[in-house]
Amino acid sequence: MAAGKKVHVKVRTSYASYEGFLLIPPMRKRVSDVLNEEERTFINLTDVQIDGSHEKVPYISINKDMIESIIEKP
What we know:
With 74 residues, the chain is mainly beta. The chain has one helix at residues 31-35, and strands at residues 5-13, 17-24, 42-50, 56-63, 67-72.
């Protein structure tokens, strides 16, 4: 079974901005596919920098209803 694709993203909420990696499952192709999954309330990011800090958090879960924008980084 394929492991999926890791995508570097920046997620902005009204509280903070988060930059890290989002895993897109093998049956999905785009970030928008993950966001549009109705059965999942949260997205999970790994290796996350919060508000541009140099310190990285290994894992964070963000409620999709709190997301204002999401940008795929190169």
